[in-house]
Write a structure and sequence with these properties.
The structure is a homodimer. By secondary structure, chain A is an alpha/beta fold. Chain A has 13 helices and 10 strands. In chain A, helix 1 crosses helix 7, helix 8 runs parallel beside helix 10 and helix 11 packs across helix 12. Chain A starts with 7 loop residues before the first helix and ends in a 10-residue tail after the last helix.
Amino acid sequence: MIVRQPTRAGVRDAAAKIAQILPPSPLFVREISGVSIAFKAESLQPMGAFKLRGAWHRLTALDSNARRRGVVAFSSGNHAQGVAWAAKRLGLPAVIVMPADAPRVKRDATLALGAEVVAYDRATESRETIAAELAEARGAVLVPSFDDPWVIEGQGSAAIEAAKQMVEAGLPEPLHAVVPCGGGGLASGTALALPDATITVVEPEGWDDMRRSLDAGWIEPVGDNPPPTACDALQTTRVSPLTFEVLANRGTTGVAVSEAEICAAQRWAVEKLHLVIEPGGAVALAAVLAGKVAPAAGMLVILSGGNTDAESFARALAVEDTRIAEPA
Amino acid sequence: MIVRQPTRAGVRDAAAKIAQILPPSPLFVREISGVSIAFKAESLQPMGAFKLRGAWHRLTALDSNARRRGVVAFSSGNHAQGVAWAAKRLGLPAVIVMPADAPRVKRDATLALGAEVVAYDRATESRETIAAELAEARGAVLVPSFDDPWVIEGQGSAAIEAAKQMVEAGLPEPLHAVVPCGGGGLASGTALALPDATITVVEPEGWDDMRRSLDAGWIEPVGDNPPPTACDALQTTRVSPLTFEVLANRGTTGVAVSEAEICAAQRWAVEKLHLVIEPGGAVALAAVLAGKVAPAAGMLVILSGGNTDAESFARALAVEDTRIAEPA
């Protein structure tokens, strides 16, 4: 099978398609260390994360035969909801293979969107195998969460919107984009969307395989026994050649943030933005607040999702602040 | 002094003025008990609450002499920030008289907006007297938080925006508006903005003086020793003839919600809207979720503010849920 490469033209096409069905997600401007930074609140999308973008671009590219047979996806939650949301909107069946320990709000929301949910045991079963078998049995199309040119292009549409919103807000076009990274779909889409910006990917400590891969020049997986992380959305153990190559070709670098830095970012978002950001959605903000990415003019920070249980969120906010969260 | 009455024309004028400087605050649609309800997220305004609307309408109505001498306001927080925000934007001096125990985020944010903050002791000092003396000494204009026709008209602009957004979202124009109520500025402005809608005001239990006043047909103050409430923004002990008469003339009724119902609403907003709503900003949502206001087609619920310490917010989310929060 020849895999097509995701392109900037594809990102622009995705942005145009998504603009027909959704208003731009809000962009907020706040100062950090005296620098105005733009925050793209993908957490305010209808299903709480950017994932509906890639799903919409992929599903709308299916022909009528494929649509009738439906789609299958495996996901810890946000991609599940994105695919379920797009499938519901297009009236096609969706089956989601989801870990049995996925956050309650993500599972419930996926069911509420009308998808069929198949649970698997993260420790003993392979979601890839289960999903592939389901897709085979039903003749359904498997929608990967990042290793897919349409999905990458769709995710990049957030940055197309943000660039327009930044200019409208009196800021420069994005010169620097700081992006949460699991498999790299959002990050590589952002890189394609913003050909003139430097891209920094941010991962939780111990899960910074994209950072290490970009440093090494080849794909390195997450190590054995990675540390626990609250970032359920970023627990990807290996990035894909598609996402890696887009980022590597752009000289992208990465940073890793600690769990405490992520909690500090979630607190900051509560007080300064009045937004609920899930742990994985807050890593880019965490990197800026922790001083691991220096605030700079024309900086765009993507807040990629907001799906979290109220209980988990309250616990994150209560984590002891071990350092000054904001440099300013 | 002849006090002019706030008018619907004034509300429309305010809405036009505010549209020149701010995008509409986001409107979100969610189902409750199977009914699509519109939520106006005033918590996402630059200073985290609707209060900049009234302040902007009032301050832009001042002549150049008055602007030079500046403004004085007394407020527990959100009105302070609203006046400070508008004053900063217009380049005029602002002094805010604020209780010494106001939430830290509200005090810090007011200072960050360049206002001078004068603290007073809620138990022993009169903020009205302090503010009047400051205004007299400086020749500055006192900007009341609700007892003022411009302020009322300005607050009403949120509903003008929301009506347009509801139609754009495929909903009917607002038939029912459910509105948090302290002094009644937002509620009376909403009533003027939406002449065909029924208005329900919502207050915390024990602070439901507007509800009792509307029932009685005359203004009744909050009783002695009202219960503690997390709604620092709604601790108004007496409504004003201006706000009362607008609402009474419309046959408005009110309901009161418990502190536990407010916490349940804050949790719901975290999980379903990914928004941080302060206690006083969540009372209208709380009334709907608790079944005290029946969900109905064309219902607009105003989420009036989001200014809360992360610590207080975490505590609110952790409050035991003593009842099913959502009827559906």
